[in-house]
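Entry 12.
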Amino acid sequence: MDKQTISVKETAVYMGVSKDLVYQLVRERKVPHLRLGHRILFRKEAIDRWLTTQETLSVQQNKNNH
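Predicted 3D structure (C-alpha cells):
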C-alpha cells in the first residue's frame, strides 16, 4: 500500500524549501495539512493543488504589477 501522507521533512524536500519554511506555512495556516497528535502530515495531492494555486496567484500578481 502506498503512503497517503508525507512528513514535514518529506514535504520540504518535495517542494524544494526548508523545513523551517514548511513549519512557518503551517503556523500561518497557509498550506493544507493535518495534525495527528503531535505529527504534522501532508497529502501530496493537496500540496500539488496548493502549489498550482500559488503559481496562478503569483502570475496574476505579476500581471497586475506591470
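Annotation: The first strand starts at residue 34 and ends at 36. The chain has a mean pLDDT of 94.
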